[in-house]
Each structure stands twice: as C-alpha cells, then as structure tokens.
Design brief:
Helix 4 packs antiparallel against helix 5 and helix 5 packs parallel to helix 8. It is built from nine helices and no strands.
Length: 202
Amino acid sequence: MDMHAVYSLILVAVLIVAAIGVALWARAQQRRKQSLRLQERFGPEYVRTVNELGDRGQAEAELTAREQRVARLSIVPLSAADAAKFRQAWGSLQSRFIDSPKAAVVQADRLVYDLMAARGYPMGDFERRAADISVDHPTVVSNYRAARAIALSDERGQADTEELRKAVVHYRELFRELLEIDEPAPAMAPAVRDVPPRRVPA
C-alpha cells in the first residue's frame, strides 16, 4: 500500500472519530438540556424522584414518561357551578374541623379525589395519582404526599389534632391549585389553630 493510500485511510479514520465525537457531544448537550428542563419543570419533585430511584437517568426517564402519559389525558377546567360546589364543600368541612378533626381529614381526602376525577385525572392508586399531579402541579404534590401520610397515620390511631390540622392544610393547598381559583386562601379558624395537640382515638 502506497503512502497516499495510507494517508487517505488515516484521514478517513480521523473524520470518523471526529464525527463520532461531535455526535456524542451533541447527545450530551441534548441530555443536559433535557435534565435542566425537567429540573425546572418538576423542581423538588425532580430531586425526590432522583433520591427515590437512586439514579438520575432512571428518574428522568420516569418524569418524562409522566409527561407523556399526562399529555394524553383530557384534563378539563371545572364549570363555574361545579367550582362553587367544591368551594362550598370545602368551607363546610373546614368549619367542622373543631368538632370532628378525623372526619375533616377523611372528607378532605375525598374532596381532593373527587376534584381530580372531575378534572379528568385517571383515578388509579395513590402513587399514580401523585405522579400525574406532579406534571402540572409539582409545587403542591409534596403537600398531597404529606397529607396522605398523616391520614394513614391517623388510621393507625397515631395522629394528634395538630397533625390532623396540618393534613387539612396540606390538602387545602392541593385542592386550591386543582380548583384553579385566585382569591386568597381562607385561614383556618383561630380556634382550630389554637387547639392543643391531643391524641385522637382510632
């Protein structure tokens, strides 16, 4: 093989290596942009998912799959009449908290469930519901998880009144965002805020 052929082969090899390098660089840049986009969209939920799965790539695949799944759903706004009914129902449960905090938490969980169904979310198990909510409401999905944890603790007879109050507040944050209302959140009644913690029977 003459030197010209050798040089030609070397040149081809260099071009192939350069092309591969450019492709890898472009892919890395694309993955970096995707990571930044997911971090910006999901915020704390991105961090939680990475910590839960223990692998950034798996976490980003999970979050991307959530986006794709929710994009296929038909999430609709409430009618004015339905929104008014939900607001009224929430006001009623909040006013009854002092007399029956356990019942208020159960009702809050049910109202959030019904509101999600009315908006068009599929009503699978809790983790699937939380995952679906995280796509469009990432800042309040942690409230949903915190409220659910307290509700489960209450089912075991391990939640006191202060914890139940916090559960209602957590549910309220998600409820308001799903309801898509803009007026200031109604404060829990002073009597509710000042109730000393007590153990509630199961």
